[in-house]
Design the sequence.
C-alpha cells in the first residue's frame, strides 16, 4: 500500500471512528459500549466503508490472546497486504490510540491469528446480520454525509 493510500485509509478510519462515537446510542445494542466488545461488527462495517471509498477489499483478522480463562480475550481488525487497521483497540487498557493504521504493531503481534480468510464487508454476511448491520451502516453514513 502506498503512503498516499495509507494517509487516505487513516483519514477515512478516523472519520468512521468519530461517527461511531457520535452515533453509538442510535446503533444496535452491540455498539452501545463502543469500542468495548464491538470489534467484529465494527470491523465488518469499516471494511465496507473503506471498500466503498475505493480503498479496496480488506480482510477481517480474528485473533485470540492469553490462556483459556481469566486473561483470555479475542479481538479483530482489518488487514490489507502489510497494513493493519484497528478502530477498537482502545477497548484494551494498554492501548490509547483510537485509530491504528500501520505496518507493524507489537501489540497486535501478541495475538494468535485464528482466521484471516474472510473479506470484511457486512454485505457478505447472512441475511439477518446483513440487515442488522445495514441499518447501523446507514446511520453512520448519514452522520458522515452530514459532516462533509
Sequence:
Amino acid at each position: 500500500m502506498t503512503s498516499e493510500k495509507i494517509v487516505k485509509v487513516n483519514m477515512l478510519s478516523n472519520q468512521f471512528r468519530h461517527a461511531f462515537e457520535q452515533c453509538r446510542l442510535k446503533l444496535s445494542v452491540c455498539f452501545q459500549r463502543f469500542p468495548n466488545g464491538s470489534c467484529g461488527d465494527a470491523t465488518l462495517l469499516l471494511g465496507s466503508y473503506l471498500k466503498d471509498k475505493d480503498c479496496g477489499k480488506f480482510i477481517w483478522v480474528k485473533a485470540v490472546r492469553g490462556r483459556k480463562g481469566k486473561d483470555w480475550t479475542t479481538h479483530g481488525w482489518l488487514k490489507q497486504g502489510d497494513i493493519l487497521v484497528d478502530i477498537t483497540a482502545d477497548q484494551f487498557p494498554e492501548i490509547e490510540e483510537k485509530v491504528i493504521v500501520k505496518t507493524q504493531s507489537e501489540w497486535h503481534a501478541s495475538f494468535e491469528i485464528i482466521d484471516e480468510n474472510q473479506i470484511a464487508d457486512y454485505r457478505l454476511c447472512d441475511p439477518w446480520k446483513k440487515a442488522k448491520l445495514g441499518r447501523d451502516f446507514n446511520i453512520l453514513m448519514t452522520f458522515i454525509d452530514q459532516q462533509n
